[in-house]
Specification:
The protein is mainly alpha-helical and 132 residues long. 39% of the residues lie in helices and 4% in strands.
Length: 132
Amino acid sequence: MSEARERTGEIEQACGERIPDEDRTVICRCEDVTLGEIRHLVGEGVYTLDEIKRLTRAGMGLCQGRTCRHLILQEVSRLTGVPVEELAVPTFRPPTRPVKLGVIARVAVGAGAEFPVGDGDEAALGGKRGNA
């Protein structure tokens, strides 16, 4: 069972009310965020995609918001009466990827940079040594 469905069941038990099926609709599949969660946040005064993203992680999954961003903006627009074009949209940046220091060092050595290199680091630098 998905996290969103488990949370929905817990909320129903806690408040003794059934949550409408429409609110159970998963809007962000990557982070398992439901339409009901988005509606609740807007009801609490959270109107920007950036705030919703920080509070729910919607748009921070594998697709980086390509699937859910527009759906969330449409719902915020519907609930607030503000056209989608006028809603604040955060700057989208490509996901970062880890880079091994050895790769950075090779680039620096190839560019003529001189830096101290410790014992055993020569193999990582392809046999080149900086200024020791």
